[in-house]
Amino acid sequence: MKCSKCGQENKREAKFCTKCGNPLSAPAESVTPSNSNFNTKYLIIALIVVIIVLVGVIGYFALNNGSGVGDASPKASADSDKVQSNDNSNDSSNDNSDSSKKTHESSSKTSSSSKSKKWVSIGRYSGSGSGSKTIKVPDGKIKVELSAYPILNYATNHLYVSGTNGESGGVDWGPTSDVETRSDSFKFTSKSEEEFTIDYYETVSWEVEFFRYQ
Predict the structure, then answer these.
(1) pLDDT for 18-35, tens place per residue?
(2) CA–CA separation, 162 and 185 (whole Å)
(3) Residue of 26, 4, 29 whose CA lies nearest to 14
């Protein structure tokens, strides 16, 4: 160590100069931090920060994308299934409605057809003795049923029913006929109202009934 006063070289560990006695002090060693150490330190810190940021960003997008995909797909699927189910339900409801309507119409037609295929009485007339009666018969398919019982077996005992359209029927007895009830019937179809005459002679009782097919 060189003395700062006299310039004498002294041992490094000496505290005083051997020549002039001047107190010696060891020169302060400048501690200069290494640039490479500083650079490494800052680089590590920067890398850590970058890694943290990247992890945060990746995690954020992963969560959002995962949640969006997970929510959207089932929801869309559910909505699609719901719409399809509603469509199927509507189709089924429409089919059932049409089927019910057709069944009702068919039943109505069958019922109506069944009702129209019946002979319905539209007039019943009866009496005894001798005489005549005129009646009006409506248009349509008509059936006439008649019967009579004579007083005696005269050749003139009779019950006749005749119409202006030429349709007629009746019963009578001859001089040798049994005294008994006799019956007759006939049918016709007319497009307009007809007039019929009931003519009877020497009867104990008689009866004429008109039926319409409706």
Answers:
(1) 888 888 875 544 444 456
(2) 12
(3) 26
**Which of the following CATH numbers is that of domain 119-213: 3.30.70, 2.60.120, 2.60.60, 3.30.420?**
2.60.120
Residue located via tokens 């719901």: 82
Helix, coil or strand: residue 146? strand
Q: Is the dihedral of CA 98, 100, 102, 104 positive or negative?
A: negative
Looking at the whole model, is its pTM more than 0.85? no
Reduced to 3 states (helix: H, G, I; strand: E, B; else coil), residue 187 is strand
Both tokens assigned to 101: 């309507």
Residue where the block lists tokens 């869309």 = 76
Q: How far apart are CA 200 and CA 150, in angstroms?
A: 10
- Name the phi and psi angles at 124, rounded to 5: -135, 130
Under a CB-based contact definition with an 8 Å cutoff, are residues 3 and 20 in contact? yes
Tens-digit pLDDT profile for residues 127-168: 999 999 999 999 999 999 999 999 987 788 999 999 999 999
CA gap 117, 110 in Å, rounded: 10
Going by DSSP bridges, is the β-strand pair 119-137/168-172 parallel, antiparallel, or unpaired? unpaired
